[in-house]
Amino acid sequence: MSNANKKNFAYTAIYALSFLIILFLVWFIYFKPPSEVEYAWVANLPYVNASLNSLCAIFLVLGYIFVKTGRVSLHIKSMSAATVTSGLFLVSYLLYHHFHGDTKFLAQGLIRPIYFFILITHIVLSVVMVPMVFITLWNAFTNKVEKHKKWAKFTLPIWLYVSVTGVAIVYILKNYNL
Ligand code: HEM
Question: What are the structural domains, with CATH classification, of the chain?
């Protein structure tokens, strides 16, 4: 297979996989009825989620500092750790959603538009982010450094925004919701 064909195949596979992941998440979050049972430990999951998102944001910032100071091997470790942490967050978030279902935001006043602005941008960018992370990683692991850098310029700030707003959402829900 020529290099151009390999690239087209990889990008098509990444977009198809991202589409399937997003489709599954939409079904899981918006259509699947929540579980009938609830366990006490489920109440702790929002804190696990916020911790994993905080860890992810820390790994992303460290990974950026490492690459900008020439420590590429630490950059790779840090970005791989961010990827694992984000994956674990997704598992923990889905578990919470499975047992707890939707969380209604009932607070009124200025916090309400602020919360929904954060929530909506968080959701939209988390969808956009899925293929971007895969493509950035694929270009890195196949040694296409210039392509990797081009994608990373957009992937990194979007991923960071999604992680930080994930923490902000839990904070607002725990402190402002009725
Ligand atoms: C999705 C996770 C990753 C993100 C967001 C990311 C982000 C970045 C950023 C922002 C840069 C600097 C771009 C610039 O200077 O303009 C960079 C460079 C680089 N990254 Fe990544 N990276 C990720 C994963 C990886 C992985 C897994 C590897 C290796 C397997 C890797 C290898 C490199 C290399 C070799 C450079 C260039 C270093 C240089 O210019 O000397 N990155 N990355």
Answer: 3-176 (1.20.120)
